C-alpha cells in the first residue's frame, strides 16, 4: 500500500514539475511587448572601488595616481538574446556620459527594449565616425549635452571619448604633477572602440521586470593594461603628463577592450 502511495505521489510531483517547466518555457517564448534595462557603470582601480581625489593607485611602473575626474561616452548599445538574435538600441538615443562624480552619470536606463532573455551587450566608447559626420541629425541634443559636460574638444573638432585626470608621482617625479588623458579623433586616428561583454546570468527583460546590468570599469587598464604607458615619460618640462594625441593614444584605446566586465545582473 505504501509503495503504491509513494508511486502516486511521485507521479503527481513529476506532473507538477513538467507543468511548471512547460509554463516557464511558454512565458519565455510567448512573451511580447517592450520593457526596460539599466546599465550601471561602477568605476574601480584594480580590485578597489574608485575614490576620487584622495585614493592613491599604484601602477606596475610604480607610479601613484590620484584620480580627480573620470568621464566617458557610452554609445551604440546592442543586446544579444539567448537565441542569437540582436537588438540595436536606436543610435539617436544611444548616447550617455558616464561620470564618476554624479549619481546620474553612473547608471542609464534604456527604454522600449523588446522583451527577451539577453546574454550579451556591446557598446562603444565614444561616438563612431559615421554618426559624427551626420552632425546634429545623427546625435540629436547630445552635442549640447557633451558640451555642457566638457566632453567636446570644440564644436568643430569633435568629442572627447574618454577623459581621465588627476595627479601622479613616480620614482623620478617626487612632487605631484597633473596628468590628463583624453581620447578622441587625433589626426588620422579616430580612436573609437567597441566592447562586447557576456552576461554572467541572463538579463530577463519583461514588461514587469527591469534588469540592472552591473558593469565594472577597471581604470588601471587605461595605462597599465596590455599596453603599458609611463606617465613619467610624458612629463613635459616637469609640468605634467598631457596625453591627448601621439603614439600613446591608440595604445590606450586598445586597452579599453579589457577595461570592462559585467560583475552581476539583477532581475527584479
Kindly list the characteristics that best describe this protein.
268 residues; alpha+beta; 10-stranded mixed sheet; 6 helices; 15 strands; 43% strand; globular; disordered N terminus
Strand and helix layout:
Layout (H helix, E strand, L loop, with lengths): L1 H29 L3 E12 L2 E2 L7 E2 L5 E18 L4 E3 L6 E5 L7 E8 L1 E10 L3 H6 L1 H4 L2 H7 L3 E3 L3 E12 L7 E8 L8 E13 L5 E8 L2 H4 L16 E3 L4 H8 L4 E8 L1
Parallel strand pairs: 1-13, 11-14
Antiparallel strand pairs: 1-2, 1-7, 3-4, 4-5, 4-6, 4-8, 4-10, 8-12, 9-10, 10-11, 13-15
Describe it.
It is a single chain. This protein is of the alpha+beta class. The protein has two domains: 1-30; 33-267. Helices cover 22% and strands 43% of the residues. Strands 3, 4, 5, 6, 8, 9, 10, 11, 12 and 14 form a ten-stranded mixed sheet that branches. Strands 1, 2, 7, 13 and 15 form a five-stranded mixed sheet that branches.
Outline: globular
Largest sheet report: 10 strands, mixed
What is the helix fraction of residues, given as a range? 10-25%
Radius of gyration: 23 Å
Mean pLDDT: 88
Fraction of residues in β-strands = 35-45%
Number of strands: 15
| Poorly predicted runs | 1-26
Amino acid at each position: 500500500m505504501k509503495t503504491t502511495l509513494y508511486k502516486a505521489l511521485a507521479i503527481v510531483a513529476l506532473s507538477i514539475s513538467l507543468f511548471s517547466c512547460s509554463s516557464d518555457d511558454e512565458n519565455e517564448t510567448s512573451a511580447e511587448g517592450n520593457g526596460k534595462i539599466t546599465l550601471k557603470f561602477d568605476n574601480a582601480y584594480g580590485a578597489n572601488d574608485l575614490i576620487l581625489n584622495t585614493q592613491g593607485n599604484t601602477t606596475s611602473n610604480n607610479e601613484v595616481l590620484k584620480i580627480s575626474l573620470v568621464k566617458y561616452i557610452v554609445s551604440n548599445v546592442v543586446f544579444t538574446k539567448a537565441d542569437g538574435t540582436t537588438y540595436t538600441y536606436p543610435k539617436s538615443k544611444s548616447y550617455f556620459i558616464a561620470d564618476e562624480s554624479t549619481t546620474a552619470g553612473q547608471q542609464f536606463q534604456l527604454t522600449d527594449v523588446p522583451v527577451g532573455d539577453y546574454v550579451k551587450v556591446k557598446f562603444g566608447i565614444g561616438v563612431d565616425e559615421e554618426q559624427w559626420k551626420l552632425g546634429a541629425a545623427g546625435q540629436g541634443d547630445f552635442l549640447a549635452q557633451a558640451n555642457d559636460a566638457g566632453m567636446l574638444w570644440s564644436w568643430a573638432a569633435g568629442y572627447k571619448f574618454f577623459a581621465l585626470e588627476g595627479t601622479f608621482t613616480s620614482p623620478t617625479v617626487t612632487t605631484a604633477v597633473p596628468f590628463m588623458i583624453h581620447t578622441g579623433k587625433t589626426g588620422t586616428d579616430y580612436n573609437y572602440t567597441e566592447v562586447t561583454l557576456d552576461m554572467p546570468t541572463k538579463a530577463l527583460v519583461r514588461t514587469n521586470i527591469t534588469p540592472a546590468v552591473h558593469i565594472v570599469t577597471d581604470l588601471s587598464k587605461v595605462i597599465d593594461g596590455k599596453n603599458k604607458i609611463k606617465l613619467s615619460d610624458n612629463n613635459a618640462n616637469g609640468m605634467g603628463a598631457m596625453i591627448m594625441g601621439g603614439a600613446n593614444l591608440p595604445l590606450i584605446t586598445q586597452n579599453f577592450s579589457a577595461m570592462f566586465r559585467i560583475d552581476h545582473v539583477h532581475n527584479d
